[in-house]
Structures are given as C-alpha cells and as structure tokens.
Amino acid sequence: MKEKQSKKNPGQSIVYMVICAVIILAFILFGLYPRWKVSGQQYMEITKYQAQIEEQKLLHPLYQKLSEKLQAIDSKILPSPSKSKLPKDKTDKTSSIFGEIAQKSELEAVSITPDVKSIISGSGPLLINTVLKGDFFDFQKFLIELGGIPYLEYIEQIQIQALPGSREFRLKIWLALSEVSEKNNLSNNDS
Questions:
Q1: What is the domain count for the chain?
Q2: Percentage of the chain with pLDDT > 90?
Q3: Residue 188: which pLDDT band, with cuts at 50, 70 and 90?
Q4: Please, which residues have CB within 8 angstroms of residue 120's CB and are 6 or more apart in sequence?
Q5: Are residues 57 and 3 in the same domain?
Q6: CA–CA separation, 129 vs 2, rounded Å?
Q7: Helices 136-146/94-104 angle, 10° precision
Q8: Last residue of a domain, which of 28, 45, 75?
Q9: For labeling, which of 23, 66, 103, 120 is most exposed (least CB within 10 Å)?
Q10: Which range of residues forms the domain containing residue 139?
Q11: pTM > 0.70
Q12: What are 113-129's pLDDT values in tens digits?
C-alpha cells in the first residue's frame, strides 16, 4: 500500500507544482505586468516633460529678448499730431529742426536746405531737400520722428543709395505754411 501512495505523490506533486506555477504566472500577468506597463508609460511621460522643461530653459532668454523688442516696438507707435501750419517767419528754423531729428535718430545730416523756388513763390507748401547718411534702421527712426511734426504735409520722394559702410538717404519733404506769420496773428488777436 505504501507503494501505491508513493506513486500517487509524484503525480500529485506535479499537479500541485503546475497549479502553483499557474498561480504565480497569473499573479505576474494580472498583478505585476499592468503596474510595470503603467510605470513604463509614466517614465515616458516624465522624460517627455523633462525634455520640454529643458527646451523652455533654452528658449526663455530668447523669449525675454523678443518681449523687450515688442515693448520697444510698442513704444515706437507712429505719432499722429493734430495738423497745423508752419508760420512763414519760422521757415529759417526748419534746418535746425530736421538736424535735431537726424541727430536724435543717430544719422548724419549732410545737407538740409529749403527749396528757394518754393520760398519765393510764397504760396503753398515749403519744399525741404534733405540728405542724410547712416544706417537703415536709424533712418526708420528718423521717419517715425518726422511723422511727429504737425506741419509735415507729405514726403514726395525718398532715394536710398548704398555707400561703403553706410547708406545715403535723399528726401523731398513738403511742409504746410501758414499765409500769415505768428506776429500778425498775435496783433490781430489783440485788437
């Protein structure tokens, strides 16, 4: 009888071993594998976010520079003063006014001359021939400042010529002139 029992034991032990192996395999499949898969996905997400953080660290200085430039552009909004006319007795000051604007814009004023024909005719606007030297972006500043002059009628012509190391800008600028000088206006208002 002992022989029969010993023969059953090896078969039963194999069945028990198979059952235990199935239980262990089921525990691995249903318990550990999903957690391992989730942790793998989390690891991928973490590496993706770390790459995004590194990218943000690299792009932050560029973002700051662009923000500063945008603020600078916002401060350079084109002026739109209310239109007025330049009194005839102030026409001799136009050269100094345009010279100051050129200097403020970091341009060299080569020549700023009122057109003699438009002064002699006495009617209509005054033509100012302007020649400037400098950088193109400084010329942009000049044009913005020029737009702030209330008696600017229009710019007829702009010629740009490349020179070694800089550019030359030729402009024909028309200014609105009043028929009566300021002195006559004041004397008329007093009476």
A1: 2
A2: 20
A3: very low
A4: none
A5: yes
A6: 128
A7: 130
A8: 75
A9: 120
A10: 88-184
A11: no
A12: 888 787 777 667 888 99
